[in-house]
């Protein structure tokens, strides 16, 4: 656990040192759980968003995008259930005066049991060597089975209590498990209470007559209220999808773990409208599609797993999370939900407007069912960044810090490095950069020895370095250095664009993982 905490601290420090993420309003001591994306962070975030958008909208001829407003009519949130049911179960420790989400305390307890399972697997793998069968061990080892059964029992009970809003049983479960305050070790807990997560605001110049609004806690409702507009203007036929990326806001009382849980965050969501009765089939298809999309980034297949929900939201008849192995353990990265027809019917009821699809084949109207895919852009940023940051031991006994970002996502694709700051090398280097910047995000760096500049670009995540030396003046060739392998090769200046374009090609990255 200590090792993981040290790694996470390095991730946070590296993100600041190399211009990826800053604490918001830092000069005023910051604002809790609010962060700013710096010069490199904003580029990485944009590239992740673009990669999602291309895969979701560009590669699917029956999915279109919208950009709905953050402010929506307040009845929207009454219809969606957010005013009445968008709550977190919170519990306070009487001694430390700290507040926690009751469900997160229980989940963290289960995570510690999972760590015990991982230790058993690691020990067995060492003992049996190449003959070790992980799947067989997990399904037959009595200690592992006992641990897993305990996890399943705890989560099932928690899910049932949450579903029935049995807050007393949540507290009882915490007490039975002897869960202590992570900071003080105290087990002196208050009762569990529900807390609504929406931020309120006002619309209008006159305080007395201003309309009470909410900052949207999710982007999905902007899609649902625009269902009929998009379907009619786009002449969309079932099944079809509407995608959106954008900011959402939640008044998280227990915001933590850097950008994993923030009060202002960005979602990338797609709502897929299907014929009733086919929703589970599409739900399974989208689970496969989304997992494959994540795998295309090359972060390691073992870092992903599905977690089926024990407690279903009021709108769902099936739900699963794609969990990622963050530095603090497996946590939710993306949710796939079969939302039934709850949302469209609710908005029909509250608005008095029909939100239905006319099927000319059956000559009938019906309210479509919805399958949702929803991934947090900030969490995805953290997953990619934390897995990419590595301390690599080299053959000569030295080491380097390298940020192995997928090259298609890297903020800077090419760093231009003149070997010396004289003899016409800077002029040629800038000429090359001026040509490349039409196609790629580039960086010019002439400070320090070339080895130190290579290390700086490695830590920054730049996939390619182009070094211009005196030979470049004679034959128009340069040295291209590859970040991951550190391999260097001599190429013509005219080949740079082709080599880089091939490496960051969207088709190259996504093609083998498209379903």
Query: What is the CATH third-level topology name of the domain at 40-71 and 215-397?
Result: BirA Bifunctional Protein, domain 2
CATH architecture of the domain at 40-71 and 215-397: 2-Layer Sandwich
Q: CATH class of the domain at 40-71 and 215-397, anyone?
A: Alpha Beta
Overall spatial form: globular
Q: Which band does the percent of strand residues land in?
A: 15-25%
Q: Report the helical percentage.
A: 25-40%
Strand order of the largest sheet: 3-9-10-16-13-12-11
Record field, number of beta strands: 23
The name of the CATH superfamily of the domain at 40-71 and 215-397 reads Bira Bifunctional Protein, Domain 2
The helix/strand class is: alpha+beta
Rg result: 26 Å
Main sheet: strands, sense, barrel: 7 strands, mixed
Mean pLDDT level: 93
- What is the number of helices? 18
Poorly predicted runs are none
């Amino acid at each position: 656990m200590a090792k993981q905490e040290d790694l996470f601290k390095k991730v946070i420090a590296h993100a600041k040192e190399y211009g990826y993420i800053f604490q918001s309003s830092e000069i005023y001591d910051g604002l809790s759980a609010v962060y700013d994306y710096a010069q490199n962070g904003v580029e990485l975030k944009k590239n992740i968003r673009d990669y999602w958008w291309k895969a979701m909208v560009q590669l699917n001829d029956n999915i279109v995008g919208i950009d709905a407003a953050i402010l929506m009519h307040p009845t929207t949130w009454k219809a969606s259930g957010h005013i009445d049911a968008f709550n977190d179960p919170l519990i306070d420790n009487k001694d430390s005066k700290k507040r926690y989400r009751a469900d997160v305390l229980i989940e963290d307890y289960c995570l510690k049991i999972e760590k015990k399972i991982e230790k058993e697997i690691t020990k067995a793998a060492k003992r049996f060597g190449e003959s070790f069968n992980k799947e067989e061990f997990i399904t037959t080892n009595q200690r592992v089975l006992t641990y897993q059964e305990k996890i399943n029992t705890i989560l099932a009970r928690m899910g049932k209590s949450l579903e029935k809003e049995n807050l007393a049983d949540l507290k009882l479960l915490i007490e039975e498990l002897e869960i202590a305050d992570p900071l003080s070790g105290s087990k002196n807990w208050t009762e569990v209470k529900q807390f609504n997560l929406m931020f309120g605001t006002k619309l209008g110049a006159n305080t007395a007559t201003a309309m009470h609004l909410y900052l949207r806690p999710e982007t999905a409702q902007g899609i649902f209220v625009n269902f009929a507009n998009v379907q009619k203007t786009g002449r969309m036929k079932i099944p079809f999808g509407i995608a959106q990326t954008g900011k959402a806001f939640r008044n998280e009382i227990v915001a933590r773990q850097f950008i994993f849980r923030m009060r202002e965050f960005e979602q990338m969501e797609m709502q897929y409208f299907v014929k009733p009765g086919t929703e589970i089939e599409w739900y399974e298809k989208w689970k496969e599609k989304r997992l494959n999309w994540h795998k295309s980034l090359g972060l390691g297949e073992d870092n992903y797993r599905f977690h089926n929900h024990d407690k279903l939201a009021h709108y769902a008849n099936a739900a699963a999370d794609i969990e990622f192995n963050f530095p603090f353990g497996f946590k939710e990265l993306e949710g796939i939900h079969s939302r039934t027809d709850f949302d469209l019917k609710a908005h029909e009821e509250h608005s008095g407007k029909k939100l239905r699809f006319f099927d000319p084949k059956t000559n009938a109207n019906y309210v479509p069912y919805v399958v949702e895919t929803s991934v947090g852009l900030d969490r995805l940023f953290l997953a990619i960044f934390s897995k990419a940051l590595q301390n690599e031991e080299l053959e000569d006994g030295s080491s380097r810090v390298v940020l192995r970002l997928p090259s298609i996502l890297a903020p800077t694709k090419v760093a231009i490095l003149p070997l010396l700051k004289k003899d016409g090398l800077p002029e040629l280097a800038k000429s090359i950069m001026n040509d490349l910047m039409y196609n790629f995000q580039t960086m010019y760096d002439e400070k320090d020895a070339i080895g130190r500049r290579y290390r700086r670009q490695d830590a920054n995540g730049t996939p390619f370095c182009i070094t211009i030396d005196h030979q470049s003046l004679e034959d128009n060739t340069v040295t291209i250095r590859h970040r991951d392998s550190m391999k260097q090769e001599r190429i013509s200046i005219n080949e740079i664009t082709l080599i880089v374009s091939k490496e960051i090609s969207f088709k190259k990255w996504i093609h083998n993982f498209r379903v």
